[in-house]
Amino acid sequence: MPPIPFRDALLFWFKLGFISFGGPAGQIALMHSELVERRRWISEQRFLHALNYCMLLPGPEATQLAVYIGWLLHRTLGGILAGLLFILPSLLLLIGLSWIYLAWGHLPAIAGIMAGIKPAVVAIVIGAAWRIGSRTLRNGALAAIAALAFIAIAAFDVPFPLIVLAAATAGFIGARLAPDRFHPGGGHPTDRKHDGPAVIDDDTPTPAHARFSLRRLLKAACIGILLMLGAWLALAALYGVDGALARMGWFFTKAALMSFGGAYAVLPYVVQGAVEKYGWLSAAQMIDALALGETTPGPLIMIVAFVGFVGGWTHALFGPAALPLAGIAGALVAALFTFLPSFVFILAGGPLVESGRGNVRLTAPLTAISAAVVGVVASLAAFFGQHVFFAGGQLQPAAIAIGLAASVALLRYRVGPISLIAACALAGLVLSYWHA
């Protein structure tokens, strides 16, 4: 088949950025439907091959998959533009929503809507823990790792990176003592068959630019590291090493490297740093961030832009007369340092990491980390629940009722997150006028 015109690919990635609702699973399903089933740009096996690789890496897997396929189709420039166009709509949308939230969020109608959305967010996080756990906790050893991770972060406030390190160590040891318990689970399998060849088919030779080369790996890695380091040094030179923007750059770089298991896995780390350590936003605002992330297209981890915007605005980085500009700067810094590592991972290390798949000694630490993620996400649900159902130190019956109804709708009737949040927002608005 003829190669895909570069212009057609760019239009597709830009369109995808506007319609990719539903979190990573929904975005991956949409890419599969468009690229494998409808357009036949890539075959089923090559798509899953790319997806399984992305699932081994820290960072947003849907974004990485877009970068990977864009890179496979149109070399490095294709990968970079595919990733940028995929995340650009959600970044711009969240910047606009963050501005509206801070400027007019105190109005009674908006406050009522957010009061209804917060319990829905708790239900969504519980649902995420359930989905990840049902896929990951296949035996007692992995369940024990999840339970210990929950206790460590919820009861003893152990930093998230230490939990990841401990889980990886357990997986490394477990691969030698009981390898059958640490085999990686399935990714996103499908039984569908497709007629006709794809542009990149099962037997299409690996393009020259995608073959492993140590020189290329080192070159791409060095360029990526220099870009991150240069951007951070520029922030430190302009606003000081201890300035909020330099701290955001360093913090969100670490967050990007800790995000095994998707956005929900890294949110507890973001809460620990952005809410509890640096005070860039409150716990209630963090819940609102997740609600906005669930109702906008693009990768869920883009809520870091909301965190950065609120942090820049509330700390008046450029003075009280330039609050929106400070918010935009914070959002851009948070997004840059969160997503840049993902581009480096794909463009530099794809073929190398891919060649190690199937070796349990290499994949067992990641399997153990995935199990720990279940406990960490459950702790996030407990953290959010405490601030929603016991706001101000008092029991909130209305919030509990909305939260229970949302949990049943999500887990029992499989209601989508957008419909769920819309219904809960309406309930909160009605209750706010009822009590007015």
From TrEMBL:
Subcellular location: Cell membrane
Transmembrane segments: 12-30, 80-104, 110-130, 137-156, 217-239, 251-271, 300-319, 325-350, 362-384, 390-411, 418-435
GO function terms (MF aspect): chromate transmembrane transporter activity
This protein's record includes keyword Membrane: yes
InterPro entries: Chr_Tranpt_l_chain, Chromate_transpt
Coiled-coil regions listed in the entry: none
Swiss-Prot/TrEMBL keywords: Cell membrane, Membrane, Transmembrane, Transmembrane helix
GO CC terms, sorted: plasma membrane
Chief location of this protein within or outside the cell: membrane
Bilayer topology annotation: Multi-pass membrane protein
Leader sequence segment: none
Keyword Transmembrane helix attached: yes
Similarity annotation: Belongs to the chromate ion transporter (CHR) (TC 2.A.51) family.
Identification of the protein by name: Chromate transporter
Organism of origin: Massilia yuzhufengensis
